[in-house]
Amino acid sequence: MSMREVKVCLLGEAGVGKSSIAHRFVMDSFNEKQESTIGAAFMSKTVKYNTQTVKFQMWDTAGQEKYKGLAPMYYRGASAAIVVYDITSFNTYNVVKDWVRDVRDTCDTEDFILIIVGNKVDVEEKRNVPRETAEKYCVSMGAHLFECSALSGKNVFEIFEKIAENLPSENPMLHHKRDTINIRPPIKEKKKECCKTQ
Amino acid sequence: MEESPAEVMNFCIFNTELGLKEGLEHEKIMYFYGLSTQTTLKKFTTTTTGASNGITQLELDGQIKQIGLAEAMIQFSSTFSDDGCHFIHTKKTRQVIYNPEPNYIMKLTVSVPSLVNPPDPGNPFYMEDSVQDSLLDAIIKQSYTFFTFFNRSYTEIFTQCGVEGLKECLSDFYDKFWSSVSISNLSLLNLFQGIVFLPLGKNPFLRVHSFVSCIEASFPIIKYTVFCYSYRMVWCSLEQKYMRIVYRYLTDFLMPACFDDSSSSYKPKALGKMKPSSQWGSISGRSTSTSIRGNMQSGYIIGPNNIKDIEQHISTERVYIMVDDCLKTFYFVVYHAYNITLCLFLESEDPPLHKFYQQLHQCLSAELATLAQELNENSTSSSSDAQYKFLYCNNMNLAVKSTLHSVSYPYEFQASNELMRLLADMHDDFECSKHGEIFIRTRDDTWVVGRRSDQREFFVVLYYKNATLMNVHEEIRKITNEQFTNVFFVD
Amino acid sequence: MATNGPHRSGNTNQSSRLSRPTRIFSKQTSEDANNETNNTPDKPRTMTTALYGRFDLEECDEGVKINHVWDSESGLPTSRLINEKRPISPSAARRDSHWLAQQASFSIDPDMDSDVALMEDILGETQSIKHSPDPLEEISQERPQLDSPNQLFPIPTEESQEEPITETLSSSSNFRNIEKELKLNKKNVFILSESGKPIYSRYGDEDHAVHLFGIMQAFIAFVEDNKDELLYFSTDTHNFVFVHKGPLILVCIANTYEYPDQIRLQMNMLYNQIISQITNTQLNRVFQEYRNFDLRRWLTDRFLSSLIELMDEDPSYLLQAIRCIPMNNTLRENINSTIIQAGNKNKKVLFTLLIANTRLIAYVRHKSYKLGPSDILLLFNMVHSTTSFKNSENWTPVCLPDFDNRGYMYAHISYVNETSAMYLILLSTNREAFFDLKETHTTIVEKLNSHGYLQKIEKSIRYADYTMPQIKVPEVRHFIFKNFRLNQYTMPLYGPPYVDEKERERLYGQYLYLNHNLYKPTRPAKIIYTVGPKETLFAWIHKEFEWYAVFDPLISKPSAVDAINKLCRWMKNTKDELFLRPATY
């Protein structure tokens, strides 16, 4: 069985729930008092998708403005970006466009998977961003839209399934090279071919 | 390295109830001493200026700003603290604020001494801890106590004489006060405001007592008498509070001004201009009593200059003393002969006549000569070759004994300035932390020990090289036994 | 390395930082009087009224004036600045503020977008400058080249996003509530910009205490106008300590045992914690260009609040020393060699620190570089302040001011496992080195684990604390011993009677008293022995160490001296366990 490594970065305004989504996906847990990310956090999780094993390596970036300058480093080598907004705050949705523009500027490949996620559907009653608005935008950008709740877990795993599903067929050469690296004893996280992107 | 000493930069008294309208802030100023320019710290050479006469708008603005800042800080601090702002530390200045009466605020600004490093003269090192808050607090409070002793409270003067009357009183008094205070010469003695008593045997003491009784009987107008010998207190019939004021006034201000012998290395800068007689009272402008030169002569320090000159106008000094909860006024006369200083408080509606002065003089000059002789024989001089110096103060009877200061004015320190400051630090610690005993070994290996028990404080500076804590402990025990056989310290 | 783009370097040189802070005292100079823009243009306001007005809480109007004052300092939308490309002269600022005040609303300038684009152009140039070469190839240099800050944090472009100032006005009753609250706090800390803009308040929302910030700024400005510097003022219970450093003003209002000089040290630590987030270069530059910049957008408040809390009771900050986990020397050597081996593989690690909570377990440094205790303490605080480093590997830029306040290092911060309090910080100057450091981290943890060291360390952490009876000097109730050469200190657990928090606080106050007396600038002490009502205190400074100890109040001097000697012997015998020696790559 083959193992694929997929680099994903989570982007979006501060406080929309990027870390919560990541924690929900990686540990299936939710922390009421999730504190804002400092710099960027790196997490990984291996899941099975159909016949493949996919190892997600995620950059959970800080949304705070002061770390914005760091973001391009995390895009590099990424196969997918998840841009998150908070459905209860229209402002966070507006900022999505900036992030998408940034991502497109840096990772404009055909295979790049762009997913836009509206978080906090558990407080539907406070919704400020209509699904239709986001949907229209996503279609125009060729992005996938999910509305999820890191709190309840609703739709979180689906996001990553979507990424797995949309992964381009692998380049056999490259894949081979990766495999050889991956055979090494099961270290929790392995070195990625980061240098290639430099 | 050159050290510039701490000096009074300015002093002001203002009334917070006045000048409330914008543009009229200058009405707050009751008194201002010193220059206030926008570039403060420029050494002021000019004499003092009153708040209202002949100053430029720029100066006035400077004064208003000084007051504004103080008031702002008082207000601001009340947001956080129940008491008002007391001390302000800036790199180059120290300010102390005192609120003696409702609506009246006194503020003293002193320059912080700096060390100029010759290679880098533009960047002096300011020795913040060389100016001690508690000493400034003591001097500003003393200035107020003296003022009320000679003039009553600000409020009373304001009520009776109006703003201008108050301004005049303040100006008369404080101009002289601040020009003769030397900030760098303040020490522990100023904190205690204590009294050095002359140690006397029973017989000479009874002699003084009977002398005073005799004088008071001969001149019933004399209500109280204070008798000092060679800067030391022998007899006082005033209550303790006033004894302290009179004693400190005599020793810190009056006698130094009279007997400023040029041999002393230290001279307060303004003293040359001072008028020894009557310089603290409400009435100014009297000339030096030239008859008194050296301590052996006799005559009035406050009273007629020349007893033989009958035509002479005698200006008088009045003081205010609480007697049975009632403020009474007395005429204040000081007479000096043969190292004896006699302060007399006369209860009288009218100023004493020339005849009175003459009779008193005759009576005193005869008696005092023999009395002085007797006291001289009886007072023992303490040896000062010991390897230690000490200061003892009993806050109950205000008695002070010190070999850390010279016996008479200008009380030169017998230890380094740093050590003197360290002693004042220790006193502050005793005041606020209830510590009973402090041993400190300085970086240059001098031991300084402070002890407090009940109301007594005892400080010793020991110059033993390489002494250990245990050595010093033993030594202190010995000194205590030597010097204070009858005083017990809890060990 | 050039950190400025060509456009802005011209700007920064000319703009004056604290150009005329005294402007609020409008009557100060004739120039100022002419430039009066206040509500009463033809009637100059004196400094006093300016200040008095501010205190009048009954008059809400005055609050508005204050804000106008700030306005006039520099409340300019970015777009205008960029277009005109000129330094902010006071009079121009005033004109602009006037213009601003006339705007009915403070909504975003419609021209904003194009200006942002222009701004990005400028930034594009600076960003195209390549980052520094690998530091390890340049050991001959005194310091490694660090990333310049503006590569990371572009100068903000949305200055006009600032909330409309009118919103910050609170009703006068709100003022009073805030003030009631402030009085209850033992220690308030405020940080503001030179122009009086609130940046941080330890308690409550700084926007609600906006008038207080204005006054604090006025105090600083007033004193500095006399070519002097405000240090502190005090009431009988409180100290109001002011530190004006760089473009920031830090104010601490404390009713604690701390002496003003000690609070000053704390404020400097706080300043450094700010620098650690944005570098000194960046801090100065942003305020040179935008005097009214809202720094809050760049700061993580939690770092500051956590640091203030730690400094309240942790002697590390007072002593500027690190506390270690005691352990035997062999284990230490094993840990060090594990770290060195892993680090030598890729040579990108400059420093590695193994830490449990806020105590150091191991420290390996590059042989040419050193970290000072204050930088290490900032790192401790950074991790201590947040839970967000748990459960993930983290990569963050950090500036270590003592090491180099101009640029960033990059920290890989990660716990050794989910359950442990132990974490590794690996520092590199290469911002792309995450995966290298990640690998180093993994290797270290793996090796430590496979050799059983991890377990041994965990055990050492469990037994890290010792009590006085354990070391058999029962006469001593508590002590703190600082090793000067290693900048480390050790102390036992607080035993009776210091188990109660109030008593412990009081004891700490006694240490503060001793420390203050040991370090008085013009009359420092070497030995202090003080008998108080509740304890006997001892302090001793020596070229190798600094020592504080507390005894029973009734102890005799011979027994105290005896106990100190006993403690000396114990210290000598156990110093290798108590203190760690840094190893080098």
Key words describing this protein structure:
heterotrimer, B: alpha+beta, Beta-Lactamase, 3 domains, 5-stranded antiparallel beta sheet, 34% helix, C: 585 residues, 6-stranded mixed beta sheet, 21 helices, globular, disordered N terminus, FUZ/MON1/HPS1_longin_2 (chain C), FUZ/MON1/HPS1_longin_1 (chain C), Mon1 (chain C)
Secondary-structure map with pairings?
The complex is a heterotrimer of chains A (198), B (491) and C (585).
Chain A: E1 3-12, H1 18-27, E2 40-49, E3 52-61, H2 71-75, E4 80-86, H3 90-106, E5 113-119, H4 131-141, E6 144-147, H5 156-166, H6 172-182
Chain B: E1 2-4, E2 8-15, E3 29-34, H1 57-78, E4 87-90, E5 93-101, E6 104-111, E7 114-117, E8 120-126, H2 133-151, H3 154-179, H4 188-192, H5 202-218, E9 222-229, E10 232-236, H6 240-258, E11 298-302, E12 318-323, E13 326-337, E14 340-346, H7 354-378, E15 388-394, E16 399-402, H8 417-433, E17 437-442, E18 447-453, E19 456-462, H9 469-483
Antiparallel strand pairs in B: 1-7, 2-3, 2-6, 4-5, 5-6, 7-8, 9-10, 9-14, 11-13, 12-13, 13-14, 15-16, 15-19, 17-18, 18-19
Chain C: H1 6-14, H2 30-34, H3 47-55, H4 60-74, H5 78-84, H6 90-102, H7 112-127, H8 149-152, H9 172-184, E1 187-193, E2 198-201, H10 210-225, E3 230-234, E4 239-245, E5 248-254, H11 260-278, H12 280-289, H13 301-313, H14 315-319, E6 322-323, H15 329-346, E7 351-356, E8 359-365, H16 373-384, E9 393-398, H17 401-404, E10 409-415, E11 422-428, H18 434-450, H19 453-462, E12 476-483, E13 488-490, H20 501-518, E14 525-531, E15 536-541, E16 545-551, H21 557-578, E17 583-584
Parallel strand pairs in C: 6-13, 8-17
Antiparallel strand pairs in C: 1-2, 1-5, 3-4, 4-5, 7-8, 7-11, 9-10, 10-11, 12-13, 12-16, 14-15, 15-16
Helix pairs in contact in C: 4-6, 5-7, 11-13, 13-16, 15-18
Domain CCZ1/INTU second Longin (chain B): 222-365
Domain CCZ1/INTU/HPS4 third Longin (chain B): 385-479
Domain CCZ1/INTU/HSP4 first Longin (chain B): 9-152
